[in-house]
């Protein structure tokens, strides 16, 4: 065997080993006994630090816990932001993203998505006395959002000339609105509802009726992981059929919560 052939075979082996390893992520999760999930820790009620337990809780966290339970492994949560969640997944630092992530065609180029497990839409939150009542009213004005989000892109498309001020997290985007540094804050309706209700003086703010987009949330899975993706979808389907998904929704969005929201969707494939 010539040296050239040996080098070629060695190069093929180096490229094949990572591919084979990547294909076994579900087996790796079960072997290590831990599922590592990226969640938000400053986005109530999806993921936030409980004042009582000092641990991260929320709608997304409950889905992560259910998936870990069905896989028969322990759950480890890793805080992520909108900007860091996809890199953390593609670099192998986390196994799944369950972090208010909208399923889009553009993001499908980087990662795979599970069935839609939550549905919302993008809106504005404004000061009641600002005069802003629609997207068109933002032309030439400043609006806060979160860096790396679909909301950033959507508002720029909807309002040419709008000045988007981006932050790493939602609390700072809301603070900019509260301090009148921006004319509006824009993100998904349910997130805005939570900040609205938790504000020291909710009457100061208003959620106009107009929707900018629809936002189907999916669980992010690294590409090349069909076994893990299929397992996640199977578990989501079981949660829908058993009523567990509806119970989690009622826990965080029921009539006695800060963000009462009727469940008008069923878990299933996204309709993009």
Kindly describe this structure.
The termini are far apart. The protein has 272 residues and is of the alpha/beta class. The strands form 2 sheets. Strands 1, 5, 6, 7, 8, 9, 10, 11 and 12 form a 9-stranded mixed sheet that branches. It has a 3-stranded antiparallel sheet with strand order 2-3-4, with helices on one face. The protein has 10 helices and 12 strands. The chain is globular. A hairpin with a 6-residue loop joins strand 3 (47-49) and strand 4 (56-57). The protein has helices spanning 3-23, 25-32, 59-71, 85-90, 105-108, 150-158, 170-178, 189-198, 226-242, 244-253; strands spanning 34-39, 42-43, 47-49, 56-57, 74-79, 96-97, 112-127, 142-146, 163-167, 184-188, 205-206, 213-221. Mean pLDDT is 92; it is low at 16-22.
Question: Which features does this protein show?
Answer:
272 residues; alpha/beta; nine-stranded mixed beta sheet; 12 strands; 23% strand
Compact description:
The protein is built from ten helices and twelve strands.
Rg on CA atoms, Å: 21 Å
Strand elements, count: 12
Oligomer: single chain
Structural class by SSE content: alpha/beta
Order of helices and strands: HHEEEEHEHEHEEHEHEHEEHH
Largest sheet: 9 strands, mixed
Task: List unreliable stretches of 5+ residues.
Answer: 16-22
Distance between the termini: 53 Å
What layout of secondary structure does this protein have?
Elements: H1 3-23, H2 25-32, E1 34-39, E2 42-43, E3 47-49, E4 56-57, H3 59-71, E5 74-79, H4 85-90, E6 96-97, H5 105-108, E7 112-127, E8 142-146, H6 150-158, E9 163-167, H7 170-178, E10 184-188, H8 189-198, E11 205-206, E12 213-221, H9 226-242, H10 244-253
Parallel strand pairs: 1-5, 1-6, 8-9, 8-10
Antiparallel strand pairs: 2-3, 3-4, 6-12, 7-10, 7-11, 7-12
Helix pairs in contact: 3-9
């Amino acid at each position: 065997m010539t040296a050239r052939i040996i080098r070629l075979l060695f190069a093929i082996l180096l490229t094949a080993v990572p591919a084979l390893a990547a294909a076994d992520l579900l087996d790796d999760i079960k072997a290590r006994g831990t599922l590592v999930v990226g969640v938000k820790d400053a986005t109530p009620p999806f993921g936030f630090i409980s004042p009582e337990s000092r641990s991260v809780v929320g709608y997304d966290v409950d889905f992560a816990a259910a998936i870990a339970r069905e896989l028969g492994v322990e759950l480890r949560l890793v805080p992520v932001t909108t900007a860091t969640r996809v890199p953390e997944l593609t670099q192998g630092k986390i196994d799944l993203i369950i972090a208010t992530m909208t399923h889009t065609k553009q993001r499908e180029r980087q990662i795979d998505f599970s069935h839609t497990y939550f549905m919302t839409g993008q809106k504005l939150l404004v000061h009641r006395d600002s005069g802003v009542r629609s997207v068109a009213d933002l032309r030439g004005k400043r609006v806060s959002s979160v860096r790396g989000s679909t909301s950033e892109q959507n508002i720029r498309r909807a309002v040419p000339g709008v000045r988007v001020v981006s932050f790493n997290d939602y609390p700072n985007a809301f603070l900019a609105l509260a301090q009148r540094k921006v004319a509006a804050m824009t993100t998904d309706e349910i997130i805005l509802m939570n900040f609205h209700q938790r504000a020291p003086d909710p009457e100061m703010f208003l959620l106009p009726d107009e929707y900018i987009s629809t936002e189907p949330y999916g669980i992010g899975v690294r590409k090349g992981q069909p076994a893990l993706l299929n397992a996640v979808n199977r578990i989501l389907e079981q949660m829908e059929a058993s009523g567990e998904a509806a119970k989690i929704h009622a826990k965080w969005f029921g009539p006695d919560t800060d963000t009462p929201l009727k469940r008008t969707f069923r878990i299933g494939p996204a309709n993009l």
